Amino acid sequence: MRRLNLPRRPRRLRRTAAIRELVTETAVTTADLVHPLFVIDGEGTPQDIGSLPGQQRLSIKDLVSECEELHRLGVRGVALFPSIEPALKDAAGSEALNPETLVLRAIRAVKQAVPELSIFTDIALDPYTDHGHDGIFNKEGTDMDNDGTVEILRQMSVLCAEAGADFVAPSDMMDGRVEAIRESLDDAGLIETAIMAYSAKFASAYYGPFRDAVGSASAAGTNLLGKHTYQLNPANRREALLETELDELEGADVLMVKPAGPYLDIIRELRGNTHLPVAAYQVSGEYAQIHAAAQLGWLDLESCRDESLLSIKRAGADIIFTYFAKDVAQRLQKA
Description:
8-stranded parallel barrel, 12 helices
């Protein structure tokens, strides 16, 4: 057999497992991960979330235990999402401003038990409204009242920060909310509370299981609720970069792209356009589709899980929000 005259043979660096590990360019560690968690009121047993296999709605007591376990495994942060009783929901999301609302009690409990764990709290009204939208409607009932919603988000942010949240995370996509929240936090003396802005949050079809988990789907009557007047058009790259630029100018400390997997190009471009940390949210639909395909025997769960997270990190994300965080942390601890 005649050998090719090749001065460079890239396969030399793939020849053995040891060599492949030596030249590995990207790795996901527990320090990269934030675990989203759902909290419910009362003392009942955890509630399984059918569309999110392996995930549960937890009482505050169970939430604290889960956070202690995540911290022991090396996970650095959790994102808390309340699932409140339907009777507490109204068109204005009034429960969000209750000083004793569920998420505030959860923040206090987790921070007291695991002070080293970073807490991210969602700043949006969809868990609290009876229509499932992220804000309040205008007088005509035709669209979100941008400025009226922002005024509520200001107050929500201060309450969450006072309860002990390390990051307030506005996910509503209202114009000007980052600057308004920063101003309100600073006026309240909460200058050390950081803002992680959901800056490039797309009107995605991948959010359905999350809406089931927090109950906004049942409030709206569908998990296909259209939010196209405030969330980003999936077709628009430049618009996403404009949104992230504005949030950075308004004082955001971290910029997020959501969802992650279908928007790796946005993560990559944002990484090249900012010096701020970039977060990406591997959303409920991304998690659920990997589980569903694995349950049917079509894909290997662990391999696809790890590859999906690696692609997000390789694209440029510094922080990855993922429901796989605990599983990955357990695997890495055993390695």
